[in-house]
Amino acid sequence: MKKTLLILITIAFVNGINAQGNSSVAVANPNVEGLYATPSICAKIIRLELSKLNKYSVYDAFDMEEVYDQDSSYRNNCLSKSCLIEFGNKLKADYMITGSYDLLANKIVITLKMIDVKNGTIYKSGLREFTNQEKELQRMTEIVMKEMLAIPVNTELVDRLKFDNDIITKSNVGKVSNSGPRVGVGFMTGSFYEFATRSKQQGGMDIVPAISMIGYQLEAQYVGTGNFSALAEFILNVNGLEQGKFLPTLSILNGFRFGSAGWEFAFGPGFTLTRTSNGFFDTEGHYGNAGDYYSVGSWNSDFSDYVYENNDDPNNTEMLSDDDYTNQGYVAEETLDERASVKGAFMFVMAFGRTFRAGALNIPVNVFYSSRGSGGIAGINVGFNVTKSKSTIGTGL
User: Fold this and answer.
1) Mean pLDDT value across the chain
2) Is 49 exposed, middle or buried (0-12, 13-18, 19+ CB in 10 A)?
3) N- to C-terminal Cα distance for the chain?
4) What integer pLDDT is reported at residue 324 of this predicted model?
5) On the chain, which terminus has fewer CB atoms closer than 10 Å, C or N?
């Protein structure tokens, strides 16, 4: 008896499933605003996605032509519940589906509703906002359709197409730009430190080896996902103004920004203006004070006609030759010298930092090191910018 009852319940359950699976559905042309797609194309997309679900018997466009021929108003203006019920009765369909596809500013809004023709009620409905990518209308329809019918949806697909109210960094949705002013301070190291503290008479700058930095950064994102962005950064700085110096630099960096915390690493070449001459440092004090710098030009003009007293033998004198400094083991090398002519020079820049956010305000903080030859500048800079809008940067996934 129990087995018979179980069999009867199973048969009833299977018949219920088959009854639902055999339910017929017709799609009325939806309303379309602001898109290139026509109502008939959107109706075809809905029919296609319905058929792929394999849950209903879906009327195709040819099944509906006879009713359209009888009353053409059903073709484009049948959007209300009462009209859909009439249309469904004429088609002898169990359910009717229609909706709207609207472009609103920079988003596409899709609304679908499913009418139970026999009971005259709205059986199911669904709505979702998507980013403005019209070529993905079919996938957008798939998402709304499955959500309306309580069918699992690919979450990655939803994340890529959904419209986010917040500023985001997806490659096919939008970007965050940290372009804006920068201020900071740099500390000179190595040969730059020596150049900064050297006296002006010796070709140095005679300044404190810590300089202010005022500039502006422009950046462009060329690759991005929700947790990663690759950036091209252009930074123009003017340094040392507080000490009466004009030291311009231009850096072109390749940057990588990670995660929601905004950690960033960047590196690349820089360009600046400099003054150098070939010369040597008299570290032993043979020709003056120990540590004095002599350029080859100043050596030739100031010392070639002077008598030099040999330190080893005060009674012995000899005429200096143009290359006498080489006899003391000195080698002329290119050295920073304020007395020389201006020319261009390259450097290598590395930076690491983080962007702090307070609402729409972004505050990037970076530590950096700029190296050239045997010296460099290490420092920190801070910037700010206000996020004003979201901009589309591509459609590639």
Assistant:
1) 82
2) buried
3) 60
4) 66
5) N
Dist. CA 145–CA 148, nearest whole Å? 5
Statement: residue 19 has pLDDT above 70: no
Better-scored residue on pLDDT, 260 or 381: 381
Q: Are 351 and 265 in contact (CB under 8 A)?
A: yes
pTM equals 0.50
| Tokens representing residue 380 in the block | 């920190």
Q: How far is CA 303 from CA 47, 312, 320, 331, in A?
A: 96, 19, 7, 17
Please count the other Cβ atoms lying within 10 Å of the Cβ belonging to residue 250.
14
Residue type, 341: S
The domains found in the chain, sorted by start residue, are: 12-161 (3.40.50.10070), 180-277+340-386 (2.40.160.20), 278-334 (no CATH)
Beta-strand relationship, 95-104 and 31-33: parallel
Q: What are phi and psi of 26, to 5 degrees?
A: -120, 150
